[in-house]
Sequence to fold (228 residues):
Amino acid sequence: MNLGLLLLMLCIEFIFACGPVSRLPASDDYSEIGKQQLEKEKWGEAVWDNDVVTAECLLDRGIEVDAPLEDGRAPLHLACAAGYDEMVSLLLSRGADVDVRQSGGETPLMIVAGRGDDLLVTRLLQAEAIVDMGNFEGITALMFSAMGGHVETARILVSFGAAVDAADKQGNTALMMAAMEGHQEMVEYLLKIGADSHRANAFGQTAIMLAAKYNNENIVGLLENDTP
Fold:
């Protein structure tokens, strides 16, 4: 076998062993990648800074409205957590997922309900947020409002159909959570609209037991007077 044929055979064997060579990005590809990365950074800054004008411009240029920020959150989560009403309105008007979840399963509605932000609670519900969706522990927006003692928020949620006696994965209801936290006005409101004070959670504890456990004597007195 001559030397030339031997070298050819070795080359063919090498190509088959290594597989096809991937095409390296051309200079135009690098330019496009850099542009996309820059726009993502600008998008994150615009949402963080509540810069509605820049955010709207980036959306017009094709940035995804639900494109995650550097911390992994959806823009709507950040805007809701910060109370950025205009930014929330913009994101919703451009088709943001109103029920997008965080790592723990929290939706934007749960976030604003926990903060007692009645304006954004109403805005999200009008955008058809699912009122009784729970996080991965089964905690709903009404439960978050109960834990925070935000009575007006609870009223809004109930007016949009929130289930008063919905329970989380441990069987705790909004009334139980309000009793644990010692929120008397919230307990009064929930009892007024028919919350079941005699229901027990997965550990056999009722609202009055939980109130006593956390030394909320004013709540214990309220619940003692609630007869079936």
In short: The chain is about 55% helix and 0% strand. The domain at 136-228 is CATH 1.25.40.20 (Serine Threonine Protein Phosphatase 5, Tetratricopeptide repeat). The longest helix spans residues 27-48. Residues 14-30 have pLDDT under 50 and may be disordered.
